[in-house]
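Hello Y.,

Per our agreement to keep a running log of every chain we model this quarter, I'm adding this entry. I've kept the format consistent with earlier entries: sequence first, then predicted structure.
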Amino acid sequence: TNWTAAETSDAELELERDKDGRPRLCYRPEGWKSWSWRPEGSSAPPGGPFECSYIVAGPEAGQPVVLVHGFGASSYHWRYQIPVLAEQGFRVYALCLLGFGWSPRVIIRYSAEVWASQVNAFIREVVGGPVVLAGNSIGAFNSLVAAATEPKFCKGLVLLNAAGRFEERQSGVEPAKKTVGDTVAEAAETSQGPLQWLLGTIARAIATFAFVNTKLRIKQILEQVYVNNSQVDDELEASIRAPADHPLALDTFGEVIQAGRRTDITVFEALDRLPTSLPILLLWGMSDPWMRPARAEAIIAECSQRGLNCTFRP
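Predicted structure for the entry above:
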């Protein structure tokens, strides 16, 4: 059953209820709103403007909340949270990061710093003031880096199963080990002549294999990360498959998967830069097969040592 648009104060949104009666956003193949991002600053990518997609719902006078999705996802992955938060009076924004969802496929050197600069530009240009910033997986790390870079835009930070680079500063967490693909791609960037061509060809072959393998297993992967498999439906799968069908999807994927090694800042370094007055809510799904609870424990320990105001909810 469709809701009326008035329930979210946004005429462009269509809502429905799932088989359990829970409200959620209707899937829209063409996407929703767009914002023209003209990157500026040392961390900004070259080129632009980029027409980045986003969703907005809720009363205009409500406290703004910006939601940032995880790897391979999009603004649509917040389909259940958007109407609930909007109904509670929040002005909710969900942004598609560059290279994901309905935002452009751009062949650039991706990193957390690039995405953080996009998030902060979005807050500055679209929202127009400080927000509660909430992210999942790499979206949580990008949100953390955004808050650490320009804390004036963030009045509260919510991290859901945060990804990102860790140092050996807390027990139980080790730095990520380089993959074969990382090593080859890094060598290709520093080599010259025929060797550079050869290594670049190998790196592209590795990325192609990973891309095709992932694309063939979209539903299977979703069922791994969604404990409640009933949420893995045709619309959710389509929201991932459609961007993967873009002509530049493979080349973009090859750059996106290098973002980890191209990111300079670590999770702990970003936490070090946060003001101690900033409230942090750490939410953690303990059954996540990739972002294990040891990461949450390391973040809690670091926040405690730094005197940060962190609340943990497993």
